[in-house]
Records
---
Amino acid sequence: MLNLSEYQKQPAKLADYLPWACLIAPGVVLNKDGSFQRTARFRGPDLGSATEEELVATCARINNALRRFGSGWALYFEACRHAAPDYPHSNFKDPAAWIVDQERRGQFEQSEHHFESAYYLTFAYLPPADSAKRAESLLIEKPDDELTETASDHLTAFISESERCLDLMGSLFPLAKFLDDTETLTYLHACVSPNKHKITCPETPAYIDALIGGADLVGGLVPRLGGENLHMITVRGFPGETTPGILDELNSLGFSYRWMTRYLPMDKSQATKVIGKFRRQWFAKRKSVISLLRESLFNETSALVDSDADNKALDADQALQDLGADHVSFGYLTTCIVVSHKDALIAEQQIRSIERIVNGRGFVSIHESVNAVDAWLGTLPGNPYANIRQPIIHTLNLTHLMPLSAIWAGPKGNEHLDDVPLLYATTAGHTPFRLVTHQGDVGHMLIVGPTGAGKSVLLSLLALQFRRYKDAQVFVFDKGRSARAVTLALNGDYYDLGAENSIIFQPLKDIDDEAEIAWALDWILDLLRNEGLDTDPDIKEAVWSALQSLASAPSEQRTLTGLSALLQSNKLRQALQPYTLDGAYGHLLDGNTESLKAGDMQCFEMETLMHSKALVLPVLTYLFHRLEARFNGKPSLLILDEAWVFLDDPFFAERIREWLKVLRKKNVSVIFSTQSLADIASSDIAPALIESCPSRIFLPNDRAMEPQQAEIYERFGLNKRQIEIIASSIPKQDYYFQSRAGNRLFDLGLGEVALAFCGAGSESEHAGIDAVLDAHGAAQFASEWLRAKSLHWAADLMGVEFNQSSDSKLPWKSKAVESEGICAAE
């Protein structure tokens, strides 16, 4: 007799075990069992920056969204730990900026492997079977013309309900959004293949199980997927109580894993039935059969009761009360963590690291062996059947157990500039931090910290790293010459405002232009007000007439001295006299030529200027006017160090208020830096600063917890936990970044080359800078300064070439090659 069994179709490939069939709507998958599923990407709050009250409130709001689901639904929360993107390449035009970035690249590649986590929430829904509808029709009479529900109706209801749930959690997960077709296929493919890459949606999105399930799955006690060993840890027991983010330590591990939390909710009636059964079972176990017979025969209550069974019966009763009050809902939970690696020993080490963390939090876990394949299939979104380990739990505990919290690594790029992040830094665990000044199209930032906390070093590094953007311009208003070395290294223009023979301006040079003469009128009137004159209409007319006459003169004669000679009023001439060559400030403002160049890297040292209070207003208003003409859409960085100089004057306060609103439209990022929050908080533009600077960096301040200081920090949106972080962080090492997108404490991790340029702020350093300039000139400053710092290898590289092809000559490259491919297991 012919044996037909060998010709019968049997599951033989991975695709046969996958639940997905086809895409039937944008981002919606129809599964083989008739259920629908769609996936959203989200990022939860950072536990490190949240107070206990905020965590409790967050969990309560998530519980409010999750408890609405009933039977037929399945929720899959996944945290996917994966390798962080490589250090980006940028085309620098400055050798100094290039060598600093190459050093930072080497530190990034030489250090331990960097990982970050991606978070996904998958909704799945299985519509009621047709038999249930037929049974319902026997009990409920409906009009003959009423249409029955179709598959399209179920699909519409599924999409609506899933969007409603995501909307409820939208304020907690501000970046949450559903995946499109291509992103959905890419995500599902990453779940079943060790090769992570983009999957483009085909024109006919059917048989997606075969499309993405091409890897080989070999079963056994230790399954293999695509040549990698699979190890699974499943939670089978829980601690006596849970807290928000109880497994948050998993987010700091230095290797890849998939942490899947599957939740199968139950309707209230079904949950009541299941929990009631447990209550009856435990209540019956309180006393043995013999005790019950003795009570029945002798009419005496037994003194001995099984306390454990009694407590569990009370626990089940409390669960029924919580369920009846609609505080929570109940369902079946499966928590499984999967690691994979080609090296069996490394995979074993990684799963042990996870096991130590899970068991250390009071959980009971099992390293899957016989149940390994079934456990892995249970981690696939859309498969509610595999893995029999399904304890009952309520939604509030679910919010504590699911992968909710996140270590924010920063955006992967600057979306506004369509380029890479400004700089890479290090943070807790193995997660890098990518610093981007822009939040949307606003690049303004506020940097606050006490003296000696590392503020000037940060500003200098920002100036260096900003040169990675095409056509970038950097303008620095400095105090204390902290940016001098960086400016000279970038072949920039360095001006010591107020110093003799440093620079001389000719503000009236271009008054033959209509716009310039109108500005000059306002500027001259400000000078007169600065000298105590009341600028009435007669004075305005006199100044305007003199300016018009001066505009017809040759450009070299358009000076303040020339204007003074044209003024008929002796009072006006006396008021202008301090700003002419006959006065104290003429050496700076009364030139017959303009010394200010048009370079794309300029630094203005203000310390000397600040000693002359009357000179600050005219000089800075003129410089701001000249810079306005330079802001033409190119990426520009305007750094205002020690910004209290500007905030102290009502005129500047109003000017900066206007700039913050307008300059973002011209692609300018303004960075305010000051020693004290009180300077800004007491300023008239405090509301404008808080609103217009969505990114803020706070430096360590051991006095931040003092009531007066804490109150000011709270005005800038910091909570108690964030203030504690600032108070306990390390000066000259830690920086706390705050924005709407996320918060993080990070470390710049400066190398010796970066410190040579960014940390040259002491008097001895400036003496060394002067010596290098005298010996070699400004053109060779960068390389000769590195040689003076005994960094000859860096100077040699800059002297030969500074393109990307020469990075193989860097001294750390040999070490990086040796460590390539090694996975950092704890």
Note: The first helix runs from residue 14 to 17.
---
Amino acid sequence: TVVPTDAHLYVAYGSALQADTDSDDQGHHFKAYTCDEILKRLDELKNLPSNTPTMPPLFPTEADREDFNKRHHKEHIHIGTLEGAHGPHFLGIDAGSTTIKATLVNDDREIVWSSYANNEGSPLTAAINIVKKIQSELPEGAWIARSCATGYGEGLITTGLHLDEGVVETMAHYRGAEMVSPGVTAVIDIGGQDMKYLAITDGVIDSIAVNEACSSGCGSFLQTFAMSMGLTIQEFTQKALASTHPVDLGSRCTVFMNSSVKQAQKEGASIEDIAAGLCYSVVRNALYKVIKLRDSGELGDTVVVQGGTFLNDAVLRAFELLTERQVTRPNIAGLMGAFGAALTARMHYQDEADHLDVVVKADGSEEQSEAEPALKSEPKAAAFKKTEPAKPEVHVVVVDGVTHTASSILTGDALDNMSMTTERDVCKLCQNHCKLTITTFSDGSRFVTGNRCERGGDAKKKRSDRPNLYDYKYKRCFAYRRLTDKKATRGEIGIPRALNMYENYPFWFTLLTSLGFKVMISGRSSHDLFETGIESIASENICYPAKLVHGHIKWLINKGIKTIFYPCVSHEENLVPNTDNHYNCPVVANYPLVVGANMPELREDDVRYMHPYFNLANHELMVDRIVEEFAWANVTREEAETAVKAAYAEDKVFKHDVQQEGLTALAYMKEHNCRGIVLAGRPYHIDPEINHGIPETICSLGMVVLSEDSICELQPGEKLNLTEFLSEGEADPRFKNAAGFRHVGDRTVTKMPLRVTNQWAYHSRLYAAAHFVASYPGLELVQLNSFGCGLDAITTDQVAEILADKADVYTLLKIDEVSNLGAAKIRLRSLKAA
């Protein structure tokens, strides 16, 4: 093997050797050019016609540029100094993905100190340096009254430095924007690796969008390209502003953008035009991929853009051209998160009902005076809490003989001596087995990440008593006891715990048990189980719930189960009245065939893999099909009729129980004055491995979790008698027992007004749930979407329209095999705060 030291130069070296001749060994003639001739010809390329699509220049005339500079170099927020500072000050720290920002605000909401720097991979160390610098520069008579953190490093910095509170970054950015432009209608923030969009109507956030797993098109995207061109980001910006024909590079992800840039270079595009094209691409990605803007009018009349990326004038100008709007970029665009956090600290400092100033008299006695009243414009933080939390330790500072409350932030020796250690562990408090990263600080405080619920953060915490329909339904769905070997006259039969079995298992278990089979369900889903079947997955683009099927089948085979029953179900029962049809999605309906074709183990002579087609909506045909498919087991028609009847009855009881629990959750909300989230998705989203602990995260935020099928039978505006669920009393006869359960065929319901063909069984429950949520106070809807689900391209838009019609916030969470819930937690906390 030969490993040349200059392998990367070999193509150029070969070209140089070829330049010494006038033809190659195949008779092709060519001419060699001098360096001056090459430079001249390259310069002439600019004047040649090109097929490369272009965008309008950022500044067609010098007058346009002068107007732009005049508008965007105003001082929106006054920047003061610490010199002469006196009284309470409020610290906000925004620990971003690549940078750390901090602002110190006085009681007049003026910034008197700020910092914007790279975190060098250690946000905590950067935060310590910031706090030390502020404390060393604060003049006598000034103090930090309250502190607040936001951003990705919020939890770590709040815990490590003992900041008073944290705030979700979307709310921090909104508060900052409202201060800059009262009556703001839209806030767009593009940072190093994230994007945020807030739509505001009459001072209320009614839509939130953030980029999910992919950070393509953010600030780091431009920085990477600038470095590849040998430019600083400042030089890159100036090149873009000088462009005359920006290249249209689309809005694809970084991987594909590289190929677009290379193609543009081959066609002679200048660095200026490529740089401007990339700035256009960042904005288009934000507008059409994240915000999903259909019309610029949706942004409203007062648009604030912020985040470090908008400090780039080329990006800002591209945004204005694409939206046909003149927007506001604050003079502190890169500090808006930290500014909003500081405003949050100030607001809560004034909003504490027990805040009192203590005057120390000459004789040593104390006199209390009431603090200024709480701000009326902000909702109380505990508006939905039944009981007040324990009061935290009060920190004070004495200034001019008056004792004031002060921030709990570390000072002096405690700050100098602060250290931390990090270890990894696996939580064993439940079946999720979350992989924890535990940071322990020198004062004994801990910060835990990786836990999907509050229990993983502190082993002493008990499981939340708030209703969680996902947890209930998972347990209820599989709460069946199989036959003993002695009673199982027809032997064992295995069922994979996957896809529609999270809806149909009670039906199939009851049917097969009635026929004398010992039903063996595969184990709980896990990433390890997923990896056991990964070799037989035919397509990487299929959704994660489908990929898990292979692992579940493998589990059954490894347990020695020779008969595996995994039916293709083309039609569900009619789950919602007045729909156009009730199909299962193509994956759910047909994936058993895919598994059979790609798992050789299922074709072994001693393995019986049953994947027949069934229509659950056709009760009469079901008996015929059971007799036909189980002829090998000598199942008689009488046995089939008995089994099918029992199966449909149990299916009805199962659905009734879930809806009973839904009413219990609504009653809990009423009794405890708390909010609820309808976590709407598919039946298999109740699998903890698929939902990654999102239901537990919602409960940890103090909200109740319902599922779409637990309330889809309820009508918009319907008055419910929840007496039975609140206390002893007369129950609503409609819900008293399964026998009185309102089957969809037993009542007349108005057909839902939709813009889509309502033909998919599980989706019809989404639409029905959305209509109910839009009319029920205290309920919000969050839709779960598995990557790779083609049908959700339609359902997500339809559900969003249903909620938008009633001015409800629509939240979509995309999930796959990656269990990082960073973006999901931001969305959920934002929804709670909205």
Note: The chain has six domains: 7-47, 74-181+330-373+389-417, 188-329, 419-457, 471-651, 654-833.
